[in-house]
Amino acid sequence: MMSKHANTRLQQRAIPPIMLDLLFDYGKFEYDHHGAEVYYFDKAGKERARAALQQKKSTQIDHCLNIYLVMSSDGHVVTVGHLDKRINRN
User: What pTM value is reported for the model?
Assistant: First the structure.
């Protein structure tokens, strides 16, 4: 389930909703130590997502592979954005 804030950010940042599905399927996550999980694509995940998108004949591939989403502990997507710095790993 997406919060209103996450829906707004998804539109503002021009991230297609299919990318969130791919992020859950092929991405990794790290705990943010505040009760949420941060999902992102690592190198292998980007390759798998790129292959899946090419099967669907999508043209918006590369600019959407450097994204992240934050999911709260109750399963709601809090926010979505483009990565501009590294994800802190445990």
Answer: 0.86
